[in-house]
Amino acid sequence: MRAHTLLVSTSLVAALGLAGCAEKADPEAEPTPTPTTSESASGSPSPTEDAGQVVPITVEGGKVTPNGSTVEVDADEPVVLRITADEPGELHIHTSPEQEVAYTEGTGSHEITLGRPGVYEVESHDLHLVVVKLQAS
Amino acid sequence: MQYEAHGLGGAGDLPIPAEYAIAGASAALAVSFIVMALAWRTPRFAVPTGSPVAAVGRLVDSGWFTPVVRGLGLAFTGWVAMAAVFGRDSLVNPTFGVFYVLLWVGIVPASLLLGPFYKAVSPVRTLHLLLVRATGGDASRGLRDYPARLGYWPSVLGLFAFVWFELISPNGTDLGAVRLWLAAYVGIMLVGAAFFGDRWFEHADPFEVYSSFVARLSPWARVDGRLTLVNPLANLTAIPIRPGIVAVVAVLLGSTAFDSFRESSFWLTKVQGSSVDKQWLDLAAMLGIILLVGGLFAAATMLTGLHGGQARQTLPGEYAHSLLPIIVGYMVAHYLTSLVEYGQATVLQLADPLGHGWNLLGLADRAPADWLSQHPSTLAVIKVLGVVVGHVVAVVSAHDTAMRVLPRRDQLTGQLALLLVMVFFTTQGLALLFSDPTAILDWLSAPFE
Questions:
Q1: Domain range list for chain A
Q2: Contact B135 A114 (CB under 8 A)
Q3: ipTM above 0.85, yes or no
Q4: What is the helix (H) or strand (E) element at residue A55, kind and residue range?
Q5: Which residues of chain A are within 8 Å of residue B4 when distances are taken between CB atoms?
Q6: Res B447: pLDDT
Q7: CA-based nearest residue in chain A for residue B129
Q8: N or C terminus: which one in chain B shows less Cβ crowding within 10 Å?
Q9: Which pLDDT tens digit goes with each residue over B334-365?
C-alpha cells in the first residue's frame, strides 16, 4: 500500500520533471523605452555634458571600465553615458522597466533618466559584466 | 539572457549613511554588555507559558479550517504553476516574483505574524495527503522511520540549493530553469514523504524548516495541545534541537550576508578582473561566508566551562535558536524594499498570469507604490532598527540560554565569546548595508588625509 504511494509519487515526479524541461517560449521581454541617443563619433561634447553628469565607459577587448565601480549621480537629473567601444553592442540599465542603450563602434553619448533614488546596475549581458553602478540620490 | 536575480525589480537600495551605521553598531555593543553584566541570573524563557486563546483555538481546530487553508494554498500554487508552464518566458512572468520574493522573503513576516505558515499551506504536504488518501494509506507512516541522525540536514541541502540558484546560478532568471528547480523540489518532497511519512517535511522541506524556525519568534505556540499566546523569547527556545540545526541558521545568515557582499563594487571589481569564472568565485565566497558564520558561532558557544559530564559539542545546538533574531533583522534590512515594491509588482503580474491582458484585480493601470525608495532616510532608519532590534533579542536569548545550560560559575565568562561573535555579525551586517567594504576604509582613513 505504501509502496503504491511511492510509485504514484515517482510517476508524478517524472511528469513534473518533463514539465520542467518544457520548451522555452519566445524570450522577447516587455518592450522597453529606448532612451535618447546622440551619436557624436568625433567626440565633440554634446550640450547635456554641461550638466556635469557624464559617466565615461569603455568596452574594449571584452573588458569594461569602470568594471563595476560605483559612481554617484543626481537622481533627478539626466545622466549621460559616454561609451567608447571597439565593436557595437548593448548595455542594460536596471531601472524598472529596464532601459537598453545600443552603442556603435567609436565614442557616443547616450542620455538616460533614472527618476528615483537607488543603486542602478549598468550591465553588459553579452559579456556578463556589471559595467558601472550608478548610485542616484 | 542573464539577469541579476535582484535586478528583477530594478534599482537596489541606497547605502545607509555612515552615521546611522556607527550609531547602530554602538547601540548594539552597549546593549550587549548591559545585558550580560546586569541581567537576570536564572533563566526566564526556558518554557513557553501563557494564556490560551480559546476563541482563536476553536477556529483553528475546527474541522473546516485546515482543509480550507490547504485548499487555498493548493489553488494559489496551481495558479502560479499555470503561469510557470503556460505564461510568457519573460521577467514579467509572476513565477519569478512568487518564487524569489513572495515565497522566500514573504515567508518571514507571514511566519512571524501567523506562526508555522508554510506548514499550514504547504502544497507538497497537501499533495502528499491527497496521494495517501487516494491509495488508502496513513499520511504519517512511510516505508520506514525517518533516521533521527539525519536531522535537519536534508533541508540544509534544500536551502543551499535555493540560495545557490537565486544568487549564483546564471539560470536563476530563466523560466525553464525555475520550473525544473520547482519540479525537483516537489518530486524530492513527495518521494521522501512516501518513504518516510510526513515527518519528512519538517526535516527536509527547506521552506517549511525556514518558516517553522521563524514561527518560533511569533507569539503563537501549542501548550498542552491548546493554542496559546506566549512570549516569543520563550517560544524560540522550543525549536527542536536536531542534527544540522546550526547549519540551517548558518546557511540562512551567511547567504543573506553574501547577497549584500556580491553586489558591492569591492567584490564586482575583484571578480570581473579575474580570469576565473564568476560563478565559481561566487560559490567559493558564499560557502566561505556560511562556513565562517557557522564556525565562529560553534566555536564561540563551546568556549566555556562545563558541568561535569556535559558534552561540549552539544552547545552549538543548544544556542542555535538565538541566531534567528539576527537572521530576521538582516532579512528586514536586506529585503524590505524588495518585498514591498517587487511584491506589489508580482501581485499585479499574478492578475495576468499568461500575459493575455487579463486584469483580474482591476489594478492593471496602477504602478507599484515606491514610497520606500523615495524616502531613503526613513528606509535607512528602518533597516538599522531591524538589525539592532534583532541583535538585542538575540543577545537576550543567548544570555537566557547561558543561564540555563552553563554551570553557575561559568555563566558570565561562558557567554562572552558568543556575545563578541554576535557583535561581529551585527557590525558586519551594518557595514554591508553601509556600503562597500572599501568605503569603510575610505571613511576611516579620511581624517588622516
A1: 32-136
A2: no
A3: no
A4: strand A54-60
A5: 94, 121, 123, 130
A6: 58
A7: A5
A8: C
A9: 999 999 999 999 999 999 999 888 888 888 78
